[in-house]
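pasting DivIVA domain-containing protein for the record, 104 residues
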Amino acid sequence: MSDAWGLLIPVAALVVIVLGGMAVMKLQKSLFGVLGTRTSDTAPGASPFGTFQQSPQESREDFVRRHWQRPGVVADGVTLVDLYDRIRALEERLAEAERRSGTA
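structre below
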């Protein structure tokens, strides 16, 4: 009988840990959902808990250019900004070449 009690304590502890974790996750989900809707209702551009989100009217390029120095927001802001600059330069060169070929 003492072997049964010896196994019951670890199993009960495991059940308490799992159920407690599920309860905490459910509580966090309900709190984050409530706070997220509250802040988005009051300020459309603001995001909950200081996270950085792209606004609907903002392009991805504008978002990267605005947050390129913030760690964790843009994967590698310097590289992305450089890529955007190179793409813009290529588009300008292409437009210039098209204008020259169209007028010649």
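Confidence is low (pLDDT under 50) at residues 36-49.
The first helix runs from residue 2 to 42.
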